[in-house]
Amino acid sequence: RVEALYSLESWPDASTLDPMDGRHFQVPQGDPEVLGEVVGPEIWSLAHDSHDKVSRRVIALLRKIEPSPAQLDRVAGFVLDEKQRSSIRIEWLRWLRKQKIDLFSSVGVQALASKSVELRVAASQELIGAKRGRGEVAEYVMGALKKSSDSSELQQAIKMVHRLPTRNAIVTRLADELFAGSIAPSVQLEVFEVATALSKQEKSLEAKLERHQAKTAKAGIMATYGMSLVGGNVEKGRRIFQGHAQAQCAKCHALKQTDKQVGPSLEGLASRHPREYLLRSIVDPQADIVSGYAI
What global pTM score does this model have? Predict the structure, then answer.
């Protein structure tokens, strides 16, 4: 089904390569109106498939077709339906942004109050990207900073502060709270990063950051990188481990004991050592060398 949907999606686009084996095989552009005629209710119903990959491909295909007013209203209702999967609600919200910007704006603003953290975050990002609902997004961000207990939402809210009109005052306040030790550990790094970015324009904030960094430097390398101990993003960490060009983690370390590499296996590492040990191994790798791996 996924491959069939890919083929339908490519119908309005000309191609010079065979999609199956990559050989040169020119395929002319198909008539978009014909695509609209063959994509009926059956295809629309697949958007609610239990497999996310199928649903995503259907929504991508439907970007190529002019929807009816009834279909637009149906999608708007789906986005705001709390019983539906957040991942697909987000895809439909992005679809609305491409199809009808005014309806997207209305639905996006309402989605800021959703029970779904994922949808709230996605709606705020899409609205800012479309330059719509800036006042409502600002209210959402400030509300999240005050009330949210979800680390991922707080992280995203902090990252969005720099796109708000009142960013200077907000970032300065967050930085002061960070230096005073009253910012939650899970979002300290995000606050530090937005403060660092703004400090290039705000000399007073730059001076505060320099004093903070000088103080932590005296306490040693672990204090310097201590903000990295909590929080973060698992999926981004996985991508860095597997494919970061400079870090090259997977070149020396395997994730399974049976897969021998230059360095020791990382299988079960988190259950054997505290976070401090893991951080120290990254920022000061000579501090603790596993037996059998010393040079």
Answer: 0.74
